[in-house]
């Protein structure tokens, strides 16, 4: 039985809810009739409305060639990385989604008045700066058999970002039991699941980064599918600034990542690789990146502007513990092309081999496979230990 208190009854439109300027905000996983109709009309090969008008060097190819490349990609890859529920065309050995995963459901709870509330809608103020300006933070966390993996590390990173913003510690202190209970209620306590912990700044002066009295923290749990056996990368049309204040934070200001991800898939790739303002490799839109060269594991250092990923840090620790030499290296595009192996890391997918960057193919995966097995064992042991 769930022990988390239920939300108070919904009020009628216009009725005072006790929250200043609060209006419901539709959550992920909940679609209106208009959204459902729009989704039915969407076609993967449609021109990107957000980027079609921009002039990129790679768009010099003819429209016919572009569509043929996209058609070929869609025939061999039946997934869309923008869709967290999409199925991968081929998967790697190890952790898997359960057979009855389709019966699970997305579920969100928000924290207010010292308790968790079930939510179909978020009671978010229309002046919340997380909503209007992207002033917020989030963490994406893998759950295995109903237990969040590496949760302490994720919370530590979010709190570090909160401290940099001057927010102190605005997070509830009962996150682990709340997540475990929510996963069980959503029938996501077997196999793999995705947990998203988020916090918005709330209302406040435009020139202030201070957290507002109506700030909101919430947790969304949803199903996730098996990761692909490999992915392909292209160069992003945008650069990442190496000295941005937001560098190192998992910020809600994520539009550029989504636009670059969409652009890469319009071109027939899985993800895009960001370079910084010094032409050094930074990260992909959704992952950190590693390269194996001369029996050494190379990765972009923090000063490139990349996110200090939780899985990235774990992989570095596991490699050093098991005799694999590691080196923080400011990698150029030519360095990447010279690598024997390339792989990406993220909290949900773990370690995934890169089979191609632009036209360069990578066929080796010996070190990648070893590190994936190490990662799988580490996260499985962590979730089992913390659930007991």
Characterise this structure.
There is one protein chain. The model is unreliable at 1-90 (pLDDT under 50). This protein folds into two domains: 96-223, Aminotransferase class 4, branched-chain amino acid transferase, N-terminal domain (D-amino Acid Aminotransferase, Chain A, domain 1); 230-387, Alpha-Beta Barrel (D-amino Acid Aminotransferase, Chain A, domain 2), CATH 3.20.10. It has helices at residues 33-41, 63-76, 129-133, 151-165, 175-185, 255-266, 310-321, 333-338, 366-387; strands at 23-26, 107-112, 115-119, 121-124, 136-144, 147-148, 192-200, 216-223, 230-240, 271-276, 281-284, 288-293, 296-299, 325-328, 341-346, 350-357, 360-361. It is built from nine helices and 17 strands. 27% of the residues lie in helices and 25% in strands. By secondary structure, it is an alpha+beta fold. The strands form three sheets. Strands 9, 10, 11, 12, 13, 14, 15, 16 and 17 form a nine-stranded mixed beta sheet that branches. α7 (310-321) links the parallel β13 and β14.
């Amino acid at each position: 039985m769930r022990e988390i208190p239920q939300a108070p009854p919904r009020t009628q439109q216009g009725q005072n809810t006790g929250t200043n300027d609060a209006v419901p905000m539709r959550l992920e996983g909940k679609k209106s009739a208009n959204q459902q109709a729009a989704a039915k009309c969407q076609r993967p090969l449609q021109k990107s409305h957000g980027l079609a008008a921009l002039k990129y060097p790679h768009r010099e190819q003819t429209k016919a060639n572009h569509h043929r490349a996209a058609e070929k990609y869609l025939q061999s890859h039946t997934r869309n990385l923008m869709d967290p529920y999409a199925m991968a065309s081929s998967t790697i050995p190890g952790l898997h989604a359960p057979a009855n995963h389709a019966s699970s459901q997305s579920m969100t709870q928000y924290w207010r008045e010292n308790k968790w509330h079930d939510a179909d809608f978020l009671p978010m103020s229309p002046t919340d700066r997380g909503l209007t300006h992207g002033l917020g933070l989030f963490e994406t966390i893998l759950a295995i058999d109903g237990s969040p993996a590496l949760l302490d590390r994720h919370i530590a990173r979010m709190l570090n970002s909160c401290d940099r913003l001057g927010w102190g510690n605005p997070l509830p202190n009962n996150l682990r039991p709340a997540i475990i209970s929510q996963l069980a209620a959503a029938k996501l306590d077997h196999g793999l699941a995705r947990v998203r912990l988020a916090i918005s700044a709330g209302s406040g002066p435009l020139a202030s980064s201070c957290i507002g009295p109506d700030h909101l923290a919430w947790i969304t749990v949803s199903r996730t599918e098996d990761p692909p056996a490999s992915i392909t990368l292209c160069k992003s049309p945008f650069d990442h600034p190496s000295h941005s204040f937001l560098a190192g934070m998992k910020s809600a200001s994520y539009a550029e990542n989504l636009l670059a991800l969409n652009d890469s898939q319009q071109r027939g790739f899985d993800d895009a690789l960001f370079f910084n303002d010094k032409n050094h490799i930074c990260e992909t839109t959704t992952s950190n990146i590693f390269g194996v060269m001369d029996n050494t594991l190379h990765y972009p250092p923090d000063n490139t502007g990349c996110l200090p990923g939780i899985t990235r840090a774990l992989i570095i620790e596991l490699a050093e513990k098991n005799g694999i030499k590691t080196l923080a290296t400011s990698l150029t595009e030519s360095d990447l092309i010279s690598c024997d192996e390339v792989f990406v890391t993220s909290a949900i997918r773990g370690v995934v081999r890169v089979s191609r960057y632009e036209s360069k193919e990578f066929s080796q995966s010996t070190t990648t496979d070893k590190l994936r097995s190490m990662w799988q064992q580490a996260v499985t042991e962590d979730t089992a230990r913390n659930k007991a």
